[in-house]
Every structure is written in C-alpha cells, then in structure tokens.
Amino acid sequence: MARNANTLSHRLRNLDAYAKTLDDFSIKTISGATVTLISAAIILTLLLSEFMDYCSVDLRPELTVDKTRGEKMTINLNITFPHAPCFLLNLDVMDATGEQQVSVDHDIYKVRLDTLGNPIDEMRETHRAATQADGQGTAANTPAVPYCGSCYGGTSPSGGKCCNTCDDVRRAYSALGWAFANPDDFEQCVREHWKENLAKQNKEGCTIHGFIEVNKVSGNFHIMAGQSALHNNIHIHAIYSYMPEDYDFTHTINHLSFGTKYPNMVNPLDGAGKDSPTTTTYG
C-alpha cells in the first residue's frame, strides 16, 4: 500500500514543469537581488497605477444636438442699475423665428432703490403719497364708487373693461404696442399726479430680477430705456417728455444663468459689472 502511494507521489512530481534545484546547488548573487528589487518595484508601481486609475473619474465631454423645437429654455436674471429708475427700464426678447416679447412683466420684478442702493418700501411710499394728497385737499378728485375708468381703446390688463389706474392704462397701451406718450391725456394719470411722482424717482436705481422663457433658437434679450413698442412689426424704443433726458446705464449682473440648474454650476457672468457713461436723449 505504501509502495503504491510513493509511486503516485513520484508520478505527480514528474508533472512539475518548474523543478527546483537543491539549496546546495543554488547561488545568491547581487545581480539576482537587483532583478528581484526591480521586479518588485515594477509590480508595486503597476498595482498603484491600476488602483489610482480605478479611483479616478474619467471625464468624457460630449456634444449633442437638441432636435426639439417646441420646448422653452429658462433664463434666470438679477441685474442692478444703481442710477436708472425702474419706470425707465424695459425688458424685451427677440429671436430668430421672429417672435418678440415686448416690455416683459410676467415673472419679472422691479425693485426700486434709493440713492444708497437700499430697496424702497413701495407700500410705505404709497401710503405717504396718499397722506400728502389728503392733506392738500385732493380727496375731491377721488372717483366715485363704483368706478370704471376708460382704457381709451386699449385692453384692460385684468381682462375686463375697466382701467382704474394710470398704470392700468399704460399696460393696456403696451399690450397693443401703442405709444403712451402723454399721461396728461388720461384722467387717471392726472388724478394720480403720475408725471410728478415719476419725476421724484429720477435719481433712484432699480434691480430687475426673475426669469423669462425663450425659444431654443438664436436670439437676444435686452434692457433698454424708454417704452418698447412694435410699429409695422419693427421693434422701437420711444423716449417721451416725462422721462429723464440724462440717464446712466451702469449695471451689475448679480446673477445670470441659462437652463436648468445643476450641482456645481458655474455662471461666468455672475458678479460682472459695466460702467456706462451718462447718455443724453433729445426728443
């Protein structure tokens, strides 16, 4: 039995392709040690490089063409004009398809700023103006209730037939692209002393913030002085007598981003500013 086991063990040894010599016949040399160290260094280097490659992130930039045409893109903005009053500024959008958005006011908000750049509490200003008006005996000019002011051919912004304030008339005209040239032609504006109140705002600033939705085509949006209007499908900006003749378009872009936000998004224009010289208009 033991003989058979030895025979089997001998046969297995014959299958060893890497037979080793006895220690008595092996010699340890410096060259052999050098080869061993170099081999170990190479193996360690390969292991480390593979591990680092496994842990690293492979960035592969790809550019794809958006083939959709009906979808909209959102533009978020927050821009401060420290020396231009809010009533002077209008935001318009134009694109390559011919679509135009004139005097955009939906989802766009204007914040009046004082000469120090602080927001003005408009509710307090309105209350103060009303108190002064009552003190001057102008309550007699208050329209009777119920009151339905004329829109003078325009369309009421509320969807009805009444334009009870000067701003309602202005928005009604703007919706049709009509010029709001002389507020004194409208009873609501005269009653509210609209021109006089605007004159008090000439030294104020303005922050415009919100978002607009545009077509995914080439185009532009701009903030300009004056009332925007369409005349024979031509985009124009009209400056009227009740607007200041000198204005400064110095501005700071607090925020400007395009499309959906994502983590670590970088907006290169955030914080950018531009000093513009004072511009004079001639009517």
Automatic annotation (TrEMBL):
<keyword id="KW-0472">Membrane</keyword>
<feature type="domain" description="Endoplasmic reticulum vesicle transporter C-terminal">
    <location>
        <begin position="151"/>
        <end position="274"/>
    </location>
</feature>
<dbReference type="Pfam" id="PF07970">
    <property type="entry name" value="COPIIcoated_ERV"/>
</dbReference>
<feature type="domain" description="Endoplasmic reticulum vesicle transporter N-terminal">
    <location>
        <begin position="12"/>
        <end position="101"/>
    </location>
</feature>
<dbReference type="InterPro" id="IPR045888">
    <property type="entry name" value="Erv"/>
</dbReference>
<dbReference type="InterPro" id="IPR012936">
    <property type="entry name" value="Erv_C"/>
</dbReference>
<protein>
    <submittedName>
        <fullName>Endoplasmic reticulum vesicle transporter-domain-containing protein</fullName>
    </submittedName>
</protein>
<feature type="transmembrane region" description="Helical">
    <location>
        <begin position="30"/>
        <end position="48"/>
    </location>
</feature>
<keyword id="KW-0812">Transmembrane</keyword>
<comment type="similarity">
    <text>Belongs to the ERGIC family.</text>
</comment>
<dbReference type="GO" id="GO:0000139">
    <property type="term" value="C:Golgi membrane"/>
</dbReference>
<keyword id="KW-1133">Transmembrane helix</keyword>
<dbReference type="GO" id="GO:0030134">
    <property type="term" value="C:COPII-coated ER to Golgi transport vesicle"/>
</dbReference>
<dbReference type="GO" id="GO:0006888">
    <property type="term" value="P:endoplasmic reticulum to Golgi vesicle-mediated transport"/>
</dbReference>
<dbReference type="Pfam" id="PF13850">
    <property type="entry name" value="ERGIC_N"/>
</dbReference>
<dbReference type="InterPro" id="IPR039542">
    <property type="entry name" value="Erv_N"/>
</dbReference>
<dbReference type="GO" id="GO:0005789">
    <property type="term" value="C:endoplasmic reticulum membrane"/>
</dbReference>
<dbReference type="GO" id="GO:0006890">
    <property type="term" value="P:retrograde vesicle-mediated transport, Golgi to endoplasmic reticulum"/>
</dbReference>
